[in-house]
Design brief:
The protein is α+β, with helices and mostly antiparallel strands. The protein is built from two helices and six strands; from the N terminus they run H-E-H-E-E-E-E-E. Helix 1 crosses helix 2. The structure holds zinc ion.
């Protein structure tokens, strides 16, 4: 994953939101980060701080809310938590788990002032 690119996108969205709301600065953003998203939180935080420089989001905080991975078994339909994509179904042992959550990055909220 390209954390810096993601961070730049988030800063863009945060700045647009601040402008639209007539706010002077972005205080913080809240981000849901899926544990299966492949995004490295530390790299993202660093990228965000870098991308914020010189914008109304400079100095804004970033709050991360980890989202556990979830998968549905294609064999028996059981929903289980996933730590990696290679997890087998704990019920029937099938490797055919379909990821149903925790694989993405979502901007939950943007706080402006
Ligand atoms: Zn199963």
């Amino acid at each position: 994953m390209h954390e810096l690119t993601l961070a730049c996108d988030m800063v863009d969205i945060a700045c647009e939101t601040a402008t639209r709301e007539g706010a002077e600065r972005v205080e913080a953003i809240e981000l849901e980060i899926g544990l299966l998203s492949g995004v490295l939180a530390e790299a993202l935080i660093f990228g965000f701080a870098t991308a914020c420089r010189g914008t109304v989001a400079e100095g804004a905080g970033i709050e991360l809310f980890p989202e556990p991975g979830r998968g549905v078994c294609r064999q028996c339909g059981r929903i289980s938590s996933l730590e990696t994509f290679l997890t087998r179904c704990p019920e029937c042992g099938s490797p055919g788990l379909c990821v149903s959550g925790g694989d993405c990055l979502r901007l939950r909220a943007i706080r402006v002032s």
